Amino acid sequence: MKVLLVGDGAREHAMAEALANSPQGYRVYAISSYVNPGIREAVNRTGGKYVQGNINSREDVAKAIREFNPDFGVVGPEDPLFHGIADEFRKNGIPVVGPNKAGAEIERSKVWMRQLMWKYKIDGRLRFRSFTSLEEASRFIVEYGGSVAVKPAEQVGGKGVKVVADIQAYLSNEKRRALSKSVDEIGSLVKNEVKIIIEEKVDGPEYTLHVLTDGYTFLPLPLAQDYKHAYQDGIGPETGGMGSLSGPGRLLPFITEDEYEKTLKIVQDTARAIREETGEPYKGFISGQMMLTELWGPTVIEFYSRMGDPETSAIIPRISSDFGYLLQLTAEQKLSQAKLEVREDPTVVRAIAPLGYPLRREMATGKEISLDVNSMREKGCLVYFGSVSYEGGKLITRGSRALELVAFGEFEEASKKLDTCTKMISANTELVYRTDIGRTLGEQAEKAEIVRYSYQNRIRRNSLGVSADWAPNGGLW
Q: In what helix (H) or strand (E) does residue 381 lie, and over which residues does it extend?
């Protein structure tokens, strides 16, 4: 059976390897914008073929579909989904993992997502305002008395999010004015008319639930946590993710079984709302980027229309059942036949990027990197290749996260394995990574307990999800 994979990062390497290792004997074909060495190995090992092309181009992907005639397809990244690549597969009669362009709007447009949640009264929703005028957005920030999060109105690769919290009232005006000056910068990231979305700010530990669905059956995967900020201890600019962790079991140490089930219901309700709104069943991954807050308990920060990266690297190695076959069942709308088995022991993922990422990608591009994958595996680390291309027998960086290292074990134990394996990587530039991933879970568990006490009190008072403006200028939502 032939499968065509669209994408070129570490997430797609993990998927390609899962497909290549499947007892189903898949022949893996792939289209990428550059030659990812990990995907290349999976393709060559299974006797498939690898082509370079524009993964956001329906014409290029349609050409690959005609050439390879796959039995099913898998679309990894979000941008191809936004460009209707999954629609192109279905137009050619090929089942595929990935929502149509209309369904992928749940990730592309934060405004559409928030409007959908309010229209269908889905739990975990936040108050928000959207703005086409940057001047009006700035005025709202200055006039509104409460804490806010300011975001670009559409998906721009994790960039541009700013938050103001009035922990010290005497600083609030200065902080608010400073934030209002960021509006132009955030708005410049967005091409469409609606530029800015401002949401009420919430606080708590974050986590992600990825759910596979064929439009009717829902298969929830183990939870994962992503570490967005570039530098140690969660400081610096936001990135696509500098690491992640998953486990033990299907939970995380600071999330309960009840919170997992409530999160799953939110994701299911959202997928059904998308079907109601678009007239098309949602097929593929729908992933809730969540925060445990005193307002709702499980609260939606955003949705993905695909698997997260680097969360994929934390999750797929923990699935002991045939992940490639799960993808096939999803594409063919047979997910009710699926059986999911998950390893109990957790994973920790560390992303490795060249100096310059994320703010100066030109500095992080064109650097040579080298490593011995087999030796690193002997030390207890898996390696997934990200933004690095195979050129003339060398590994050349492309400006983003080049590698994702994965280790099993209790979080401190896994982190020590990653420390060892990180030292085995050499490059003609300085490498950027975080060593604190998996080492702050005690703090997060403590924070979760405080939040849990608060939202459970809300449940008892029947005020879950009810917001109140405390400031004189409130009531602007």
A: strand 381-385
